[in-house]
Amino acid sequence: MKQFVKKSYRQFLRLWMAACRRLPLRRRVLFFSIRAEGHLLENAQTVYDALPAEKTVFAHRYPMPSKWRPFIWYLMLTHKVIVTDDYLPYLREVKLRPEQRVFQIWHAGGGFKKMGFDVFPKPDTIHEQYDDVIVTAEGCRQFFMSAFRLPEDKVHAYGLPRTDKLLDPQYLTRTREAFFARNPDCRGKKLYVYCPTFREQGHKRIRFDPKLDFDRLDTELQDDEMLLIHMHPTVDYTFLEKPYRHMRDMTAQEDTLTLLCVADLLITDYSSVIVEGSILGLPMLFYCPDFDTYERGFYLNYPEDLPGEMFTDGAEFAERLRYALSHRSLEREKEYRRRQTAACDGHATERVVDVILRWLSE
Asked: How many of the other CB atoms lie within 10 Å of CB of 250?
């Protein structure tokens, strides 16, 4: 009986896809994201807000219930343009119509840690339907071409849309004032913003142990210092298991860009948040206690090409924070900006919107 049901359902799906392909194609844009539940994250939201066109949002964390598949296929096959900011697994299942277009406005900027085919080399059709892909500088095009196995004419240095506002002095002032109004105990203090990325083992997500003694670190931080932690959007745990005087997990309260706008120093590891940190001109520090066992490779020379120093010993954490503020690697910072963020000039969103509008008019 189960085999009959499965076979019948597969037959239904084939018929359903064929039917959807015959429906009218709407001059409408589908923003499809698997990165958050019920809302778009900064990059996609920036494009959505600026786009003067009819739009649909479908934002749910992957994996999604299998019973949603018919509706997902319907959306994908009836929108002229699909905009996505991450891997879109359903592109393996749905062969789009020739007149449809897919814009990959990838959530991570720069050519940093390896991804796509450069990490998972087995054959995969997930990327072959992209019509355009965003990168943050001309020098990064080759990395995305390799990761997605795409020709040069499908990868362009438009810049990262969410970074446009980081070059707007009025936005920075408003953001800082609003942050300190919400968090008055942070005003007047040195704010160290720690943004670690997720971890994998055998290509499967694992819980990351930062190898920090938080009780000790809290005593080492002075009253005019605070460590603000923001976890990666795809993890569901925190490092801090109790309240501390000089440390706070801000993941649920503030977004990453807001924290960067108020930061005196950015601490990260293998996260592309360094793109935004670079655009803001922040001093940076790279804490990598698992550097010797980290599985992903890099497109740049790590740590030589980083816009800051890398260290691995958690016992040095507080000391390293203060040292990084007073001993900046200015030449390395300048070279990183030149090679990795040159297209982030405050007009990235305009360029992306222009492409989408052109597609809609075809």
From this structure: 20
* H or E stretch at 319: helix 317-326
Contact criterion met (CB below 8 Å) for 62 and 260:
no
- 247 bridge partner residues: 227
**Nearest one of 29, 22, 26 to 356, comparing CA atoms:** 29
Q: Report the sign of the C-alpha dihedral through residues 335, 339, 340, 343, in that order.
A: positive
b/e burial code for range 216-246 (CB count within 10 A of at least 16 → b)? ebbeebeeebbbbbbbbeeeeeeeeeeebeb
- Sign of the CA dihedral 257, 260, 261, 262? positive
332 class by beta-carbon count within 10 Å (0-12 exposed, 13-18 middle, 19+ buried):
middle
Q: Which residues have CB under 8 Å from 330's CB, separation 6+?
A: none
Fill in the amino acid letter for 8: S
The gap between the terminal CA atoms of the chain, to the nearest Å, is 48
Which one-letter amino acid corresponds to residue 73?
A: W
β-partners of residue 193 are: 228, 266
Q: What is the pLDDT of residues 142-166, one digit of tens each?
A: 999 999 999 999 999 999 999 999 9
CA 30 to each of CA 25, 42, 56, 303, 307: distance values in angstroms, whole numbers, following the listed order = 12, 16, 5, 39, 36
Spatial separation of the C-alpha atoms in residues 344 and 159, rounded to whole Å = 4
| Structure confidence by residue, pLDDT tens digits, 54-78 | 999 999 999 999 999 999 999 999 9
